[in-house]
Amino acid sequence: MENRQIDITAKNNNNVKLGLIPGHFATNHSHVNYFVDMTTTKTQYRAARETARELSKFYAHNKHIDTILCFEGTEMIGAFLARDLCEHGSGMNGGLDISVITPETNSNNQMLFRDNLQSKIYGKEILLLMSSISTGKSINRCMECLQYYSGKLAGVAAIFSAIGEYKGVPIDSVFSLEDLPEYKSAIPSECELCKSGAKVDAIVNSFGYSKI
Length: 212
Known about the structure:
Layout: E1 6-10, E2 13-26, E3 31-37, H1 39-43, H2 45-56, E4 67-70, H3 75-86, E5 99-101, E6 104-105, E7 111-112, E8 125-133, H4 137-148, E9 152-161, E10 165-166, E11 169-175, E12 185-186, H5 192-195, E13 202-205, E14 208-211
Parallel strand pairs: 2-13, 4-5, 4-8, 8-9, 9-11
Antiparallel strand pairs: 1-2, 2-3, 3-12, 6-7, 10-11, 13-14
Helix pairs in contact: 2-3
């Protein structure tokens, strides 16, 4: 499967790339026709730094952010993003500090924050940082969690997003459907690949893929 991989480069930064593998893949919420490989982007220093640099352009001068809430292995990008935003000084954050945290998930797949972290959420302006967004269902879980802990949603950022907004909230991403116009996502009952008899190549999530 790996020999089918192609790379695409961000419009404004040749150092930010995504690996794309065409096929038939099952996620928790949908079936997609591309596996979007972000391993390098999320785990290597330079790639994470440059990805954060691109995302910071969306927030450098027009939003106040207290906390970056990282999902799907984006902690390194989140740290670089916090640095870039704080370095703007009199701009967006006025030189104030930014917290970078990750929610815990319990046995019922519910997100929670321990007592020592709740002060980073309560009454704070929160930026959700995700690796990939296909349907928006993961964002919905995050929004419910923030509501419970009295956090304020300041924005949603992603490396790749197939949608431009969710429930009226804009999604800022380095890559979008403009970069991958052939990308399709559908619930299993409406999946064209399933209807054509194509077998699922792999189960995918934020950690990667497992071949079937």
